[in-house]
């Protein structure tokens, strides 16, 4: 076990984790960022809606961030997967799968979420190329194109109301029972949105460019882009192991500066939010980093007698 007691260990090296690391580095704090190196946005070619970095490749964003954080030598990056966490406020012990052990006064979960399989043939080939989950991130590139939405129920209504701001050429494929009521179907019809409730047989594409969605009833829906409602889960159950409160969606419950219900444990980014925007995650990470520093300062202040 490492004899060095760090100020913080950050689990997750995406926008939230790195933003927290930057805030801590500039606060003269020591921290290790443990990152598995498999961000959820690795399938996409570009990040959007991030001021000064609009259109950047996710890997390039991470490279630049690490390069800038390297100016603060007390911040270290370790590639690996966290296996266990134990301890309590003031002395947490974090072990990685390959046996590395770190001790820290505070702990930040910036682990994001993970995609659950949707079991739709052909979706993997277009995901991140012409099939996306967020209109704010990728709607501009597909504006006014013929789009298919894959969602059902309230999720379908939400996606329809948002996506129509980018294109009026929308078809809703619910991949089975639509889970809509008569009033919702009528509402969609008023906006020119056709609902197809036959299960999806296959998404046909060429080099990542979607061509059509084939349904099991023999129908086909031509399109040049897809937006779908993902199924997400927490990336790790380690926060629950420590006793962190978790919402129904799997998000760690945290206040505006990332504090959870467990003393010394913070969370930020997609791990603690259902917003799923890189710039929002970075903002939450910065607040969590400052929150950790403020807590450490307060503890040091009170220790002086």
Structure description:
This protein is of the alpha/beta class and 305 residues long. It has two domains: 5-115 and 231-303, FAD/NAD(P)-binding domain (3-Layer(bba) Sandwich), CATH 3.50.50.60; 119-228, FAD/NAD(P)-binding domain (3-Layer(bba) Sandwich). Helix content is 27%, strand content 28%. The protein contains eight helices and 17 strands. The protein has helices at residues 15-26, 58-69, 123-126, 135-138, 153-163, 182-190, 238-242, 278-303; strands at 5-11, 31-35, 75-79, 82-88, 91-96, 101-109, 113-116, 131-132, 147-150, 170-173, 194-196, 200-206, 209-215, 220-222, 225-228, 231-234, 265-267. Strands 1, 2, 3, 4, 5, 6 and 17 form a seven-stranded mixed β-sheet that branches. A hairpin with a 4-residue loop joins strand 13 (209-215) and strand 14. It is elongated and about 75 Å long. The two termini are 32 Å apart. It comes from Paenibacillus cineris.
